[in-house]
């Protein structure tokens, strides 16, 4: 994809797809619940953001660039994230688990996001979090034998592959005009943000990640590989290879 209108068309089409069979029964075991449900409750809360601060930053950027289709794309992106939260919430409802209204990790992350008014900071943060989301949902899918939960995870993974593409294309446009020195400083800041988020997610969700077969060594290895992939794409994005890129992201698990 090479412009915001392409992304508007993608999100409009993707939001119409139904990839989850809600007629099937839940088959999660009590042991699986002990390992992953508390984590899933916290992650579900994080997926339910209204996106007001992101939209405010996107509106400011769209005005500067005279690219109002980008704001439309952001609105649809937020809807897709909210769809993830609602699907996870419906699953929690089905198994009798409460939807959380407050979580320490989510509260801290929301406070940090409140002060982010620059679209680059937002985009960099989102692309890093969504890279970890791919690791997380793959681990959740591996930690359960419940087909419904696995379908929910696969649906999110497919969406996140496109979300990552959406974000790194925009970071490419933002950083491309910069000098080599300024780019090095920029990526050093991204790298620091990456490690902070990596540690925060591990301490908040390590029990569920371990249930999905990830100790810290495997988890951090996957994360670093994803960061290298995303950095390479930010610097060398090819707008003509969307499907291949998304496939590479999914296979990088």
Give an account of the 3D structure.
The chain has 253 residues and is mainly α. The longest helix is centred in the last third of the chain and has 32 residues, at 180-211. Helix content is 78%, strand content 0%. Mean pLDDT is 89; it is low at 242-253. The protein starts with a helix and ends with a helix. The protein has helices at residues 4-14, 30-46, 52-65, 68-94, 104-114, 119-143, 147-175, 180-211, 216-236, 242-251. The chain is built from ten helices and no strands. The protein has a single domain (27-251), classed as Ferritin (Up-down Bundle).
CATH architecture heading? Up-down Bundle
In total, the number of strands is 0
Rounded mean pLDDT score: 89
Q: What's the structural domain tally? A: 1
**Number of alpha- plus pi-helical segments:** 10
Shape: globular
**Overall helicity:** over 70%
Main β-sheet description = none
Compute the gyration radius: what is it? 18 Å
Highest CATH level, the class: Mainly Alpha
Percent of residues in β-strands = under 5%
Structural class estimated from helices and strands: mainly alpha
Detail the poorly predicted runs: 242-253
Summarize the helix and strand pattern as letters.
HHHHHHHHHH
Q: Give the termini separation.
A: 24 Å
The CATH topology label is Ferritin
